[in-house]
Structure formats: structure tokens, C-alpha cells
Amino acid sequence: MRGVTTSDMNLTHHFLIAMPSMADTNFARTLTYIAEHNEGGALGVIVNRPIDMSLATLFDRVEMTLDNERYAQQPVYFGGPVQTDRGFVLHRPAGEWSATLKVNEQIGLTSSKDILQAMTLEGFDLDVLVTLGYAGWDAGQLEQELAENAWLTAPADLGIVFDLPAEERLAAAMQLLGVDFANLSESAGHA
User: Fold this and answer.
1) Of the residues 19, 70, 134, 179, which has the maximum number of CB atoms within 10 A of its CB?
2) Alpha-carbon distance 180 to 1, whole Å?
3) Does the pLDDT value for residue 122 go beyond 90?
């Protein structure tokens, strides 16, 4: 049987679920949304690790005012260990922004300030999850980690990202696979 190559697999718009054996503390017990996966690598954001900062506080730090009550008290998330000083907005629908990775018509990942400016306006009504940092993998790196059983994968369900509290997202993603996280072993094998 031949090995899995990057061209065989596209995990864009999928979840990565960290296995209990995940040794990297950046990713232990995380649910990561993959916004792009191709022969060059993969990019995503962790969607279940809020940090001790509200969107209103983040906006203050970038010298903007966020009075929109829908968003002001939402938490900011640790999106991953890459560029942790930079903000990323996962949002539905995708829309048109200056620097958006459009996953599909329903969802995009934006790194430009124009979406933050729009959030301050009356009538802005997108579902958003704002992160500091992102998760990135070089070409073949994610495939290698999958071969080492570091992750489970599942097609993404945006309801899990935008409609559930952060602490329920990992278990809900596991339910997509019919698996209870508590029953997973620290090690896995290949059949």
C-alpha cells in the first residue's frame, strides 16, 4: 500500500481534533479549523481556546472603539503559535474584505483591518471568531502528523464554531465522528 501524499488529501474546511497523546502544549485538547490545505502546506485557527481578553479590549489596543454589544464581550482566541501578535477573523459569510482567504461562500479568514472597522458599525451582522495567531504546517508536515496519529479529522460544521460555547466545541466535533473524547486512548495503531 502506498503512503498518503499531499495530492491525495485536502483538509480545507475540515476540523483537526488533537489526540489525547498530543505532546505539543500549543495543540493539546484543541479543535482547529483548517482554512487552507494544499501542496504548499496548511493553515488554520484553533477555535476552542479563548484567552483572557475580550474583543472590546483588543479593539482598545488597536485604538478602535467597539460599541457593538453583540461583539464587545466575545473572547479573543489563541489561534495558534504562528504570528501571535497578529489578528485573524474567521467569519461567516465570507464577504469581500482586503485580505481574505475565502474558504467557500459560507466562510472566510480575514487578516485585514477593514473587517474590524466594519465590526464597529451599526448593522454589521456576521458571525465572527477573532484569534491572535494561527496554526501553520509546511508542505507534508500535516500529513506526517496525521500518519503519526496526532490528529483526527472531520468535515467542519460551522454551527460548532459559531453557535456553541468554546468549552463544548471539541466534544461536539468528536460527536461528528461518533467518538467520545474520554474514551480515546493515548496511543493509536494502524489496522
Assistant:
1) 134
2) 30
3) no
Can you tell me the distance from the alpha carbon of 142 to that of 38, in angstroms, rounded to the nearest whole number?
10
Give the pLDDT band of residue 186 (cuts 50, 70, 90).
low
Sign of CA pseudo-dihedral 112, 118, 124, 128: positive
Has residue 8 got a pLDDT over 80?
no
CATH number of 6-169: 3.40.1740.10
Q: What percent of the chain has pLDDT over 90?
A: 76
Looking up cell 490545505 gives: 37
pLDDT for position 45: 98
State the average pLDDT for the chain: 90
Residue 85: the pLDDT is: 93
What is the 3 state secondary structure string of the chain?
Answer: CCCCCHHHCCCCCEEEEECCCCCCCCCCCCEEEEEEEECCEEEEEECCCEEEEEHHHHHHHCCCCCCCHHHHCCEEEECCCEEEEEEEEEEECCCCCCCEEEEECCEEEECCHHHHHHHCCCCCCCEEEEEEEEEEEECCHHHHHHHCCCEEEEECCHHHHHHCCHHHHHHHHHHHCCCCHHHCCCCCCCC
Domain boundaries, the chain: 6-169
Q: Which amino acid is at 52?
A: D
Residue with the larger pLDDT of the pair 23 and 40 = 40
